[in-house]
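@channel sequence for tomorrow's demo:
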Amino acid sequence: MGILDELTKETGVLPETITSLTTEEMESRVREIKLQLGKKLFIPGHHYQKDEVIQFADAVGDSLQLAQVSADNKDAEYIVFCGVHFMAETADILTDDNQAVILPDMRAGCSMADMADIYQTEKAWEKLMEIFDESIIPLTYVNSTAAIKSFVGKNGGATVTSSNAHKMVEWALGEKQRILFLPDQHLGRNTAADLGVSLSEMAVWDPIRNELIYDGNMDCVKVILWKGHCSVHENFTEKNIEDIRNNHPDMMIIVHPECRREVVEKSDLNGSTKYIIETIEQSPPGSSFAIGTEMNLVKRLINQHPDKKIVSLNPYMCPCLTMNRIDLPHLLWSLEKIMEANPENIIKVDKEVSKNAIFALERMLTRA
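structure tokens (generated this afternoon):
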């Protein structure tokens, strides 16, 4: 079964033993199970998760960080990953065979990761080889499927995170004449532009039309951007920035590099989720920020820093819908299934896929 099939299959309705409980009863039961399982259970929670889930997380962080922490936790027999599918895949790739990685709701996917499937990517690579021969090295954002990470590892490339993208793109351009950057065009474009690559030296690969979009001499192409994006970050606009500048002229604007190029250019600061969090934490009382990233995180930062004025860059932004699939009832259900010795939604990546994906991850980790 493919990832899209897995994500879209009928997951069934949660049992009444879960849905009939009050929030307080569910919270109490989660605490009870955590106490009973002790070190056998580890719950990583991504920054974009709801507070109702984050309150039970043993570690909170970005996707790769959480996968690494999970891999370091050798006592854990069950890793209940509160994030999305590709994150749980990475955790399974890095953890031992005797550890089960569980996703509380299989519908928790990632629209960006799904914009580059392995079939599209292999077709694109074949055509790009015809155009550019062996002059391309692939890079993939860690926000991608295990199959894409494996493809990149098999073809000499590496993964990147939003924190180390500059270093990895610089490395890749030192290895080959040009790079293919998957699956987020905005992170690729913003990173390459910061490193001095002209927009005129960037082409876009359209996986739907299976063609390269570029108006110029192909010899000038240095970066090929996969036509994918984050459905949350792409919704921040220049108009949002203009509104903040007009209504809050003293407010700093900080955005994630998954935002469009024009939004990043007009902001005061841009960086990874970790960078955004640390910038807010280290700013003095009275500081004011408009933040262009996922709403669950923005709300958490507002609550954690009452001494600062913090707003979302887009006041009408919704939380990431797929991240929100993981909620308190699904978390409790997955824990109850463990207690029944019948865990469900176990994420298992094929051995050969894992091997090549590890190559891509290790190339990053040894350089970043």
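heads up for whoever presents: The radius of gyration is 21 Å.
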